[in-house]
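step: validate -> pass
step: tokenize input -> pass
step: predict -> running
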Amino acid sequence: MRKFYRRISEKKTSTIVGLLLAEVLIVFFVCACGNNLKEDNKVIDGITNETMVESNPDFVKAQELYIANKCISCHGTDLSGRVGANSNLQKVGNKLTAEQIQNQIKNGGGGMYPYKDKLTEEEVILLTNWLRSKK
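step: predict -> pass
step: emit ->
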């Protein structure tokens, strides 16, 4: 009789160990595979930040303002900057707050011309939100 109970006990133990191992493997694969969300936040379920920016009508308007106001001459077509490190805007959303970006656009400084007399408040906000998305 003892052998019978020992076998049942051994089977239960091996079943429990097997289930625990399976759970650990499932957790590992789920965590390893992820859900397409990358650390740098560039891809979310197959949609890149660039795609989101291109499809946002306000960002399209901001890009048009960027071109129309000749921002390209100093900041470049790809925002990499053409007149020194401070003119690079590629990751400006990580470096400056919305208030700091608005202030820079309106008042200029550091070699940048002020645009408070050239842009409306709405246009400044459009540009600010677009630049804040650059991370």
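step: describe -> The first helix runs from residue 2 to 33.
step: cleanup -> pass
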